[in-house]
Structure formats: C-alpha cells, structure tokens
Amino acid sequence: MNLIQKLQKFLNWEPSPKPDITLDAELYAQFLPFRTPLILIQLCMIFGTLGYMYIEGHTLINALFQTGYTFTTVGFGSLGEGEFTPLGKLFTITLIIFGFAVFTLALGIIVDVINRGELKRILKERKMLYRIARLKKHFVICYHNEYAVQVTKQLRANHIPFVVIDPRADMEALAKQYQYPYYIQAEPHTEEAMLKAHLSSAKGLITLSSSMADNIALIASVRLFEKEHRIPNAYYVISAAEDVNDIDKLKKLGADTVVSPTKLTAQRITAMAARPDMENLLEQFLYKSDTPLDMEEIFVPKTSWMVLKKLKETHLRDIANVSVIGITKKDGKLMPMPKGDVLVMSECKLLVIGTQKGILFTKTLVKKHEKPEELKYV
C-alpha cells in the first residue's frame, strides 16, 4: 500500500469511480488536428531563439523573450529598439509572418472542430458516464416510450436511480423534457451500451420496447453479460409484452417478470367496475410514495434463525410492527394469509405489510443467524 492509499484510508476517502468506457480515445482523436500547429509553434520558437542569439548576440533568455512577443505579433517592442541589424530586421519580419500563418492555421482548426460539434458531444457524454459510474443498485431502462415515461415518474417518486438508453438522435432533448437525470444514446442490446450504463453495479434491467424481437435481444444480451462478466447476483429483468401469449416465451428466455399492458388494463378496469372503493384504496396504498404503509417481499436465507420456526414464534408483529400476509415457497407457490402454525422454510419469501421503518427492521432480523435479543422481552 503506497502513501496515497494510506492517506485515503486514514481520511476514509474514496476516489471518484471511473466508468468502464471513458471515451478517452475519442476525445484524443478530436485533438489530433492540433498537433501540426503545436509542433510548428515549438519549431518557430526554437528557430527564432537561435536566430536572435546568432544574429543579434542576445542571451538565451533575451532571445526567447524577443522571439515570444515577435512571433505572437503582440507589438510589445524589442530589446535594444533601433539597434537591430538589417539582417535582424529581415529575420524579425520573417518570424512575424510565420507567427501570423501558424496562429491563423490554429484558429481555423479550432473553428472547424467546434462547428462539427463532435467535441462538444463527446465532452457531454463523458461527463454523463462519470456521473453514471457513481450509481449503485440502479435500474437500466431500455427504450423511451410512454411506458418509460410513466415508469420513470414512479421511480423518481420512490427515489430509485435509473438510466434510460435509447438510440434516437434527439435523446438529449427527450431527457430534458421528461426529466431523465441519466441517459445514454445507444442501441440498448450492445455490450458498449451496457458498459456505459454501468450495468455491473445495477440491480436490474427493464425493457419496454413494443417489439418482441427487441425484448428478446435485450434479455439474451443481459444474461450473456452476467456470464461473461461473472456477476455474482443475477439481474432482475422486467419485460413488457404487447401480446399476452408472449409472456411465457419471455419468461423462458430469462425474464423474471413480464408485464402485459393489455392484461393490466383489463384487470384494473374490472377491479374498478367490481369494487371501486377497493381500487381507490389500492391506488393510495401501492402507487404513492408518501403513504405510511408499505408492502414488500423479504427473502429468508438458509442461515436465518427463522428457518423451521413457526410463524407465530417469530413475533414479527410484536417486535417489528409488521404482518405476514403471504409466504412464497422455494418452488414459487404462494401461500396467502398463512396461519401462525406454518413453518418458515429456508429460501422462502415473506410478504409483509407495515411501515417502512418496520420493514427495514424486519430485513435486519431475518438476516441474523441467532435468535435476536428482542424476543427475550416478548
């Protein structure tokens, strides 16, 4: 460990994370046209300094000073005004002409690079990539459409970070219009786009294309990305399906959840028609971030103290103020409204309802290996 690393550890300071793709090569390519004028400037400075030392007999520093303001045509004056030899005056005129030509060339290159707009685009994208590199447990949303607009509104309301990827040319304008804090203009299924979106630190990916082919390509690409980069935890992949018949296909290909807008719309309309009051309650409960109640599934690991304990023996309602309204077994079967005598099995999921504080506390309790001390007072 070097001195800088020791100092960082002592100050508990970590350097800013670096994106997987920095665009350094693209940025350097934009500056390549400046090599010629920079080389000419150095050669002219060396030529002028040696010339004044030889012709006028100046010292090195005086010759360098004389060359600098002569070559840049600032009109400052000269050392020993009026004492230049005829050869020195001709040399000075030649140096001024060279200086004017070189600076005109450099100015033309600057104007050309700026007018093309590529440098500005690369600098903006590079800044965005460094911002995205700071994200953790975010979602990568593929393709901008009406579904993406509504999904991002809910994610922002619940303070869940996300990155939107879309190949269209007006992505920057769309990001400003729909308040996408992080976005990338690229084809979502490419590895380059996934690296730019910092997928290695993401929680999951959401593909909302109306094209079945696009969704299939993305699901296959993200699962391949997992294997090639040896991601320890599988991504949570959510896909949209215009056709209800495509739901099973996408799940078999690797999607964890497939949402059909047609099916969801039909279900909600039916719920509103049959039980309008209940629908209003669910609207307030599930889709608003400021509600005092929350509902979440909590995974029970093999090493949890709850394994093979009866549900009533966990006393979650007493110590965490939450209620278990469902248990999803390891095989995916849901047991709704379990009784107190039901055993909590390993790798099951507890569907709990309660306050956000209570749910967070329940997650901590479930992860413990030994029986928590809170149960001594119950």
Summarize the structure.
It contains 16 helices and 12 strands. It has helices at about 5-10, 25-30, 35-55, 60-70, 85-115, 120-130, 145-155, 170-175, 190-195, 210-230, 245-255, 260-275, 275-285, 310-315, 315-320, 355-365, and strands at about 140, 160-165, 185, 205, 235-240, 255-260, 295-300, 310, 320-330, 335, 345, 350-355.
Shape: elongated
Category by helix and strand content: alpha/beta
Provide the spatial order of strands within the biggest beta sheet: 3-2-1-4-5-6
Backbone CA Rg: 33 Å
Mean pLDDT level: 84
Largest sheet: 6 strands, parallel
Uncertain ranges: none
Indicate the percent of residues in helices.
40-55%
Give the N-terminus to C-terminus distance in angstroms.
50 Å
User: How do the helices and strands follow one another from N- to C-terminus?
Assistant: HHHHHHEHEHEHEHEHEHHEEHHEEEEH
Number of helices: 16
Query: What fraction of the residues are assigned to beta strands by DSSP?
Result: 5-15%
- Extended strand count: 12
